[in-house]
Amino acid sequence: MSDTTPPLRLATVERRYRTEAGELPVLRGADLVLRAGEIVALVAPSGTGKSTLLHLAGLLERPDGGEVFVEGRAAGTLSDDARTAIRRTTIGFVYQFHHLLPEFTAEENVVLPQLAAGTARAAARERARGLLANFGLNGREHHRPGRLSGGEQQRVAIARALANAPRILLADEPTGNLDVGTAGLVFEELLQAVRGQGLAALIATHNPELAARMDRTVTLRDGRVAEA
C-alpha cells in the first residue's frame, strides 16, 4: 500500500435485505474514504444503516453492489478465508456489547485473537498485558469478565480489538451500554489509543458530544454517506 492509499474506501456500496414484503434497500451507493490517523464519527438515526455500513466496512457482510477496498485491495469478491485473514490482521471491531468470552480471563481474551493470527504465545501475553495496562487494568488481567465492571469489560474489548495492531478500527456505539460518566472516560481512552497508533477509525455514536471530539462527522441520508 502506498502512502496515499487510504486504509478503507467504500465505493458506491449497495446493500439490500429480503423481507416478507420484498427487498428493502438500506444502502444505495454509499461512498466513504477513511484515511490513516483520521477518526470519523458516524451519526445517524436508528434504522438508517449505520450497523450495516460498519459490517460491510469490516467485511462481516458482502455488498450487493459497489466495492469495499481495504488498503487498496478490492475485498467484495475475495474468498471467505481471505476476508477472515484481513479482519484478523487489518481490522479491529468494537461492539456496543463487549462479547468477551466469559470462561477466559481479561488477558486471555486479548491473547486469543493474537494466537489466531499466528503470534507466539509469549509475545501475545506481553502485548495483552501492555494494552490492558494502557487502559488502567493493572491487577485485573486475571479476572474473568463476570468479575469486571461494565467499563472494565469494554476496556478489555477495546484492547482485544487493538491486539493485532490493526490499521482500521470500526466501533458500533462502543460506549452506548455504559453510564454517562464511564462512557466519557472509556471514550477518551479509546481516542487516545487510536490517535497514538495512527489508525483510521470509524465510530458510530448517538452522542453529539462524543462526535464533536472526533475529526469529522458523517451521516446517512437516503442510503448514502453525507457530511453531517
TrEMBL record:
Stored InterPro entries: AAA+_ATPase (IPR003593), ABC_transporter-like_ATP-bd (IPR003439), ABC_transporter-like_CS (IPR017871), ABC_transpr_LolD-like (IPR015854), MacB-like_ATP-bd (IPR017911), P-loop_NTPase (IPR027417)
Family: Belongs to the ABC transporter superfamily.
GO term, biological process aspect, one: lipoprotein localization to outer membrane
Classification via Pfam families: ABC_tran
Record GO terms (molecular function): ATP binding; ATP hydrolysis activity; transmembrane transporter activity
Domain ABC transporter, residue spans: 8-228
Alphabetical keyword list: ATP-binding, Nucleotide-binding, Transport
Name this polypeptide is given: ABC transporter ATP-binding protein
One GO cellular component term: plasma membrane
Domain of life according to the entry: Bacteria
